[in-house]
Design goal:
There is one protein chain. This protein is of the alpha/beta class and 222 residues long. The protein has a domain of 118 residues. 5% of the residues are buried.
């Protein structure tokens, strides 16, 4: 992209462009158009790729973090080892909230509460969301909640603000003990980590075609 098409074209002809244009010199300018914004640029690029043919593209990034989407999942398991129907999903967003386009395209099942944060991790506010919008709908007046010693969720006052009934109790595991006694660390998360490792490099191993800008479905294979 450029603000001076003639100058950029002259650079390409002189062999001063990108590695690609140095190897394959341009023949002529077929079409030029003004892009409204970054979204318009990406959409137009994808349109022409589909129209004139897509190729496998190899890219290099300085940080892996730039192309991954950090997230936090807060599921709940019952005493009889059942994974309950509702959970909180926290996705990483630069502005601590979803952009307008993401809000339109994001598909959220009714049993998932989705929130955004700059780090992709939980916080004091997200913990309150977990209590109010997830846990409250799954329990009655009498229950025992087992949590690790992460400071924001170890505060009994926050718990009592949502569950004032004394029959509801909060039990906090001691620091550095969750890996040995926390039920989800010993069961659910262990399987979760194993599955995650299996699928993390799936697209690379299987050379799966991808649309990087599409969060809902990145697999182009039929």
């Amino acid at each position: 992209k450029t603000n001076d098409i003639d100058q950029r074209y002259a650079q390409y002809l002189a062999g001063k462009g990108t590695v690609w244009t140095k190897r394959y010199l341009p023949i002529k300018i077929i079409l030029s158009r003004t892009m409204k914004d970054k979204c318009d640029e990406v959409t137009t690029t994808l349109k022409y790729m589909k129209q004139y043919g897509e190729r496998t593209t190899e890219v290099a990034v300085k940080r892996k973090n730039n192309i991954t989407h950090s997230y936090t999942v807060l599921p709940i398991t019952s005493a009889d080892r059942r994974l309950l129907d509702k959970f909180l999903l926290i996705l990483r967003e630069k502005e601590n909230q979803f952009g307008q386009r993401v809000q339109i395209d994001l598909i959220v099942p009714p049993n998932i509460i989705v929130r955004a944060s700059k780090s992709g991790k939980s916080s004091d506010g997200k913990y309150r969301t977990f209590l109010n919008e997830v846990l409250r709908s799954l329990v009655g007046k009498k229950f025992l909640l087992l949590l690790d010693s992460w400071k924001p969720q170890a505060d009994l006052e926050k718990f009592r603000a949502v569950f004032p009934n004394e029959d509801s109790q909060l039990l906090i595991f001691s620091e550095e003990s969750t890996g040995y006694i926390q039920p989800k660390d010993l069961s659910l998360f262990r399987s979760w980590r194993f599955i995650h490792k299996k699928i993390e490099h799936y697209t690379h191993i299987n050379r799966t075609k991808m649309i990087i800008s599409d969060r809902q479905k990145i697999d182009n294979e039929p």
